[in-house]
Structure formats: C-alpha cells, structure tokens
From TrEMBL:
Protein name: Transcriptional regulator
Protein source organism: Aspergillus ruber (strain CBS 135680)
InterPro entries found in the cross-reference section: Split_barrel_FMN-bd, TR_PAI2-type
Gene3D superfamilies noted in UniProt: Electron Transport, Fmn-binding Protein, Chain A (2.30.110.10)
TM annotation in the entry: none
Length: 257
C-alpha cells in the first residue's frame, strides 16, 4: 500500500476497531502450485481476537473460514500438507506470509470542482478518490483435518463470527423479540455437515497498517469545499464521506495544537 505520511494511520486500536467494524476482508495468498494460480484472493468475514483491548501495541489474531472447494483453500491445504510432519493433527502453519485487506464502505470520487480555493486560483488540480483501508499481514494456520482440534476450532470460530455479525453488524440484542440468530438454532447434524465443507484459517498478525485518504493533502479551504461538495450531493454516501473528511480535518488540527 502506498502511504503518504499525511494519509497514514498507525494507531493500532483504531486499526483493530476498523477491522471489527468492517469484518469482510480480502485474503490474498501467494502459493507455488502446479495445479492452482500462484496468486489467489477471496472475500472472507473475520473475527479479530485481542488479549488486551486497551493495548496500544497488540496486533491481534484473525480467525475465519472458507469453502473447502474454493481453489484458494485447496492450494492452502496442499501447501500445508507438504510441510506437515507425519502424524500431525490440528492446525498447520503455511510457510509464506498472507495479506488481508479490509476496505471501508465509505469511498467516493472527488471532482476538482470541489476545490474552491486552488481551482479558481491556479487550475492546478486533478480528480482523485477518497477511501479508507487497513492491511493485515501475517502467518496463516490452516485447520482442515477431521481431528478434535480442527473441529473445535471451526465450531468456536463460526459461533463467534455469527455472534459478532448478529450483534455488532445487525444490531440484534437478547432483548429483541427474536434476539440474534445462534448456531444452536440450526440442527446439530446440519451444522456438522456444513462444517465438513469448510476449512478454518487463523492468522497471527505481524504487520498492521492503515490508509485514511480523506482530502488531508489539500489546504483547509479546499477541504471545506470538499465537505460542502459532498454534502450538496444529497446522498447517504456523500454525507458520510463529508463527515469523514471533516473528522480527519479535526484530527489534523488536534495533532498540531
């Protein structure tokens, strides 16, 4: 990820919160294989585990799962099998680093017409795109056998992911008329069959970085024009983009004071 200092976000709690708020991440692997493409990517929802949520430095662990029939899953299983000592059960760590990209839902084209200061003064402005993204690099452990450790990992992961999605994403609470959906609401036999069709993935994060590109590179008057321009669109995405540009502007002012 190309990171200009003005767009970079290195505050670890902010990055972890971004992952929690936008759990659908794009997993990218680079695995040498005679049968599958070297580079593969899949959209997967993740849970991020942190031992101490108040920590300013703990990167955390990502937990997810994907369909066993996914070619990327097959390549990971093949790679894990090649490096697996005889008699090994449970998770097997891949030798190469993987990447998960999390992208915020708020992104928008920025027209030069929004730059109310620089455009009329010099005309030296060009279009761009505002967005927010977080990249997590790490070592992946794959759970793909039928042993107890893998079965327990998958059961724990899908339960936690469902709970997070039902409460944090959907907003359902135990006090609701129906409450959040739980894995236990489905027949045990059905869940067991579904679980056999997936593999588990755990990623020990080794690097975490973010980019919040929200017109920080422009002068204050141009940023004000961007905020006004997005608000004038009268759309939900425009209003939210304006809010994020304003938020980042206030953060810049706070950092200078």
């Amino acid at each position: 990820m190309y990171l200009r200092a003005i767009h970079a976000e290195s505050h670890i709690p902010t990055l972890r919160r971004f992952v929690r708020d936008h759990p659908l991440g794009t997993l990218t692997t680079a695995i040498m294989s005679s049968e599958y493409p070297f580079l593969q990517t899949s959209h997967i929802p993740w849970v991020i585990d942190v031992k101490d949520d108040s920590s300013m430095t703990e990167l955390g662990i990502l937990r997810g799962h994907m369909a066993r029939q996914n070619p990327q899953a097959k390549a990971m299983v093949d790679s894990a099998t090649l490096n697996m000592p005889p008699g090994t059960t449970g998770g097997v760590q891949l030798k190469d680093e993987v990447l998960v990209l999390f992208t915020g839902p708020v992104h928008h084209y920025v027209t030069p017409k929004f730059y109310t200061d620089t455009k009329p003064a010099t005309g030296k402005v060009v279009p761009t795109w505002n967005y927010a993204a977080v990249q997590a690099y790490g070592r992946a452990t794959v759970y793909f056998d039928s042993g107890v450790a893998s079965t327990e990992y998958l059961s724990h992961q899908i339960s936690d992911l469902s709970q997070h999605a039902e409460t944090a994403v959907m907003g359902y609470t135990e006090g609701d008329k129906k409450g959040p959906w739980k894995v236990s609401d489905a027949p045990d036999r059905y869940i067991a069959i579904m679980q056999k069709a997936i593999i588990g993935i755990k990623i020990d994060i080794t690097r975490l970085g973010g980019k919040f590109k929200m017109s920080q590179e422009m002068g204050e008057k141009d940023r004000a024009g961007v905020i006004d321009g997005f608000e004038s669109l009268g759309t939900e995405i425009g209003t939210e983009t304006a809010r994020m540009v304003a938020q980042r502007q206030e953060m810049m002012k706070g950092a200078k004071s």
